[in-house]
Amino acid sequence: MILSTVCTLFFAMDVFGDIVFDREFPDEKTHHILELIVVILSIVAFVFHFRELKRFFKHHHKMEDQVRVASGEFSEVINGLFVEWKLSPAEMDVAIFLVKGLSFSEIAEARNAKEGTVKAQSNAIYRKAGVKGRHELLALFFDELLSDVSIAS
Hints:
This protein is an all-alpha fold. It has 2 domains: 1-69; 86-153, Arc Repressor Mutant, subunit A (Orthogonal Bundle), CATH 1.10.10.10. 81% of the residues lie in helices and 0% in strands. The chain has helices spanning 2-21, 29-85, 89-100, 104-111, 115-129, 134-145. Helix 3 (89-100) crosses helix 5. The model has no long low-confidence stretch (mean pLDDT 82).
């Protein structure tokens, strides 16, 4: 877009300079007309690019808003399930880390706890959620989140 603007300004100044300072060369009329056409086309291209860029940014902001909404909905789904399962605050922390994909040792380090404690809390979470492991826990969250989404066949 900047390059288009620079080219348009260059050709516009060139045409203006040719018309103002080169009047004594009437055989250059075709040259001036061609330059004027290039300037007009450059202006049209500039306007088109500006409108497309404006439309792109509007779409981009709309998509960002949708991601924020989806992220908030996912958080609401997770918190709702935690309450339904009657998880303790410590189990909720561990469950969040499990959903984020951290290993038991990483969770233990983040919570200043022993790895065995994290494993015990994870097993309690799985039992309360009615699942066998981390993968089923994640599947449960996504299933809950996507329950209203229809799949086109």
